[in-house]
Design goal:
Number of strands: 3
Number of helices: 8
Radius of gyration: 28 Å
Helix content: 40-55%
Structural class: mainly alpha
Order of helices and strands: HHHHHHEEHHE
Strand content: 5-15%
Shape: elongated
Number of domains: 3
Distance between the termini: 64 Å
Mean pLDDT: 77
Strand order of the largest sheet: 2-1-3
Length: 175
């Protein structure tokens, strides 16, 4: 954005700011009749034209800037919500997502909003120092027990870091 365009943009924004301070409209019905709201709409259109004019000069000649459409939101049905509430302690977010046809992030977000805790899939590790077993448990437990930060412990996972006296080995639970 060049200096001339920036100056125009700032002028429009200052005008919008001064008019919006004067406008006392609360509802949509009031804003349709309000002169200040009409002026705000005009200034908003002017700002959008300025923005689109700026984009035309660049590599996006055929693309006009528009406000993004509302994000498509996967609607959780009542059955899905009751399934989440009843079975959260049995499944991880990933397993719940597979059962509901959602991603694990969608399930995690919804569970967080509803204050539901899902089963956590944690791995158990052994921490060795010079081939001597120091601690066993989840990374957080080992961190509390040894005083080593959890972020540092993850560096000791076998294969990630060479030439160290400490090793963190994942325990195979199937044995």
């Amino acid at each position: 954005m060049d200096a001339k365009m920036r100056k125009k943009r700032i002028e429009i924004l200052l005008a919008i700011n001064s008019i919006s301070a004067k406008c006392n409209c609360i509802s949509a019905k009031e804003s349709t009749d309000c002169d200040n709201c009409k002026e705000l709409r005009k200034l908003g259109d002017k700002l959008m034209k300025l923005l689109n004019k700026n984009r035309e000069g660049g590599s996006h000649k055929d693309k006009q800037y528009t406000f993004p459409a509302e994000r498509p939101n996967k609607i959780f049905t009542d059955e899905m919500l009751s399934f989440l509430k009843e079975n959260a302690h049995l499944y991880t977010y990933k397993e719940m997502g597979e059962k509901l046809g959602l991603t694990d992030k969608q399930v995690q977000t919804k569970c967080s909003a509803m204050n539901i805790k899902c089963k956590v899939d944690r791995d158990i590790y052994n921490l060795y120092e010079n081939d001597i077993l120091i601690a066993t448990g989840y990374i957080a437990q080992i961190a509390r027990e040894t005083g080593i930060a959890a972020s540092n412990l993850s560096k000791y996972v076998c294969g990630k870091r060479k030439k160290t006296r400490r090793r963190l080995v994942k325990v195979d639970e199937s044995k």
